Structures are given as structure tokens and as C-alpha cells.
Amino acid sequence: MQRLKTRPQFQAALAGGTVSRTAHFALHRMILTAPTDTSLATAEQDGSAPSGGQTLFGMFDVWLGAMVPKRWARRAVTRNAIKRQIYNVSERFGDRLPVAAHVVRLRTTFDRQKFISATSEPLKLAVRQELEQLFERAVRQEGQPSSDQRSDRATEGVQA
User: Fold this and answer.
1) How confident is the model at residue 7 (pLDDT cuts 50, 70, 90)?
2) Confidence class for position 50, pLDDT limits 50, 70, 90
3) Does residue 40 fall inside a structural domain?
4) CATH assignment of the domain containing 25
């Protein structure tokens, strides 16, 4: 599993759409396609290929980034603890995630009345449980056909 590092990589993954949500987190994904044309692959290595979202990612692998904005986690200690949890939980799901660029984004704050300390064990446990739920939903959704595919199959069954 590779980590997203540059702003264009994060922007491309966020543009791919939301795959899964929980109360505090959202998972965004941009599916990567394997280079099939060898002349295009060599052109990308030379730098003469047209730039696009796919060229941001040098390796055909699972990519992951974590976005924990100051708006939702004021203290750096909290932001770093949440990022560590994101990367640790994602390692467990890495083999089940599709080859794509993923971004886990914190979308709301954790209640400061309930979680007083920035790195308390209850906060770490709550973050871990919610991240596991987020990745489970994403993996489960990946195994199911999309609603368009389901409706196509339903109409085929009616026509047959």
C-alpha cells in the first residue's frame, strides 16, 4: 500500500467520489486502470504522455491518504493520533481494497465533552471502531454490483 503525498494526488482521489460514510469519516476513491498499451507506458516514463489523473500515481497499487483538517480536530496531537489510526486500520483492509487511490477524510468533530483528552483511550477506540466500519462498508460495497448493473439484470430477466 502506497501513501498519497502530493496535493494533486489528493485532489484526484477526492474527485473520484465518495464510496462510504460514517458519522465522522468519509472514504473517497478513484479507481486506477492498469496501463495496457506498452507504447503509452513508455511515453509516460519519458514524460511525453499527456498528463491525467492516472499519471499522478506511478505504481499500479492501492494508494491511501488521510485528511484530518484543523477545523474538525484543533490539536495537532489529536490530528496525528487520528491519522495513525487511519493508516493502522487501513493496513488490515489493504489486501481487500481495490487498486485505487483512497482518501479517508474527517468530516465532523468528535465531541470534546465526551473525549476530553486529545489522545485518550476512549477516543482512540471510537476512532478505530468507526474506521473499521467505514472500510467494511467500502469492501462490502465493492463486492456488490452497482444499482445500474442490478437494474440491467432485472430488465434482462423480464425480457427473457
Assistant:
1) very high
2) very low
3) no
4) 3.30.230.10
